[in-house]
Design the sequence.
């Protein structure tokens, strides 16, 4: 079965392009759709700007399929953050998307890399996520969290949050590479995550162990290993195997290629597309 492949606007960040330029470039590269990691209206009204992006994407036949925004229910006032995110749901509606991803938290400063203590904050995180998704459901938009940001990144924590929210409108933006940032095994993690997937991110990383000095351009995982974004198929993420598991779960949604390596997106993204397309189109 042929799946729809989008690209995240974040993949073009190194090029310094405007949002409309990202839409044009995604279309020129041959993607089926685009998702936005935030939008950048500058001095313009955000609602009018979102409507303009939707009109332009429709003109090019490249739908906007997902909208991702930052959030933190622990380090910001809970009610204020819920209300802010409800406003972002309104932006998602103007963009024409039916999926919006938001963060849950980066964790309290002293607990960000902790292996313990998540359970005590779970009710607060669930309350925030539930309030946002209930509002989004009224507008026909599903919300999700991503395994992202160290604290809420390992598969069992994300699963616990989804189960605590307990809403069919709330699920998982599954990033097959990001499990490595919390020192998780991507394939084993995907086996748990797949059944909750609303949208899937395809990403790969080069890896260096904690016993070695971090190579230039690498960042540390929660456990002290080192990662560097790369073109899918060149790193240690078993991309095809992860997609096979996700497919076998019954997922028929959008896959998004998110690139964050050091090679220019202008050359790296087409290489990634050449690797991913045969897997998805088979």
Sequence:
């Amino acid at each position: 079965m042929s799946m729809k492949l989008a690209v995240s606007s974040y993949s073009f960040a190194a090029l310094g392009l405007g949002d409309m330029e990202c839409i044009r470039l995604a279309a020129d590269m041959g993607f089926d759709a685009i998702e936005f990691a935030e939008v950048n209206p500058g001095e313009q009204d955000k609602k009018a700007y979102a409507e303009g992006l939707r009109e332009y994407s429709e003109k090019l036949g490249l739908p906007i399929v997902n909208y991702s925004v930052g959030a933190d229910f622990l380090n910001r006032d809970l009610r204020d953050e819920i209300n802010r995110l409800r406003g972002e749901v309104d932006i998602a509606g103007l963009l024409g998307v039916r999926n919006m991803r938001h963060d849950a938290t980066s964790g309290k400063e002293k607990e960000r890399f902790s292996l313990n203590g998540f359970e005590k904050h779970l009710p607060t995180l669930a309350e925030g996520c539930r309030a946002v998704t209930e509002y989004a459901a009224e507008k026909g938009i599903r919300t999700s969290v991503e395994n992202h940001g160290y604290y809420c990144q390992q598969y069992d924590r994300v699963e616990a949050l989804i189960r605590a929210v307990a809403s069919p409108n709330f699920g998982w933006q599954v990033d097959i590479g990001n499990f490595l940032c919390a020192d998780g095994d991507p394939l084993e993690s995907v086996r748990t995550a797949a059944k909750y997937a609303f949208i899937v991110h395809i990403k790969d990383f080069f890896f260096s162990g904690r016993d070695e000095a971090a190579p230039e351009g690498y960042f540390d995982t929660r456990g002290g290993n080192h990662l560097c974004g790369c073109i899918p198929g060149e790193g240690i993420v078993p991309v095809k195997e992860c997609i096979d598991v996700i497919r076998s779960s019954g997922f028929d949604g959008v896959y998004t290629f998110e690139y964050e390596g050091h090679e220019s997106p202008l050359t790296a993204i087409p290489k990634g597309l050449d690797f991913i397309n045969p897997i998805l189109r088979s």
Observations:
- The mean pLDDT is 96.
- The longest strand covers residues 64-69.
- The domain at 5-205+236-281 is CATH 3.20.20.150 (TIM Barrel).
- The chain has eight helices and eleven strands.
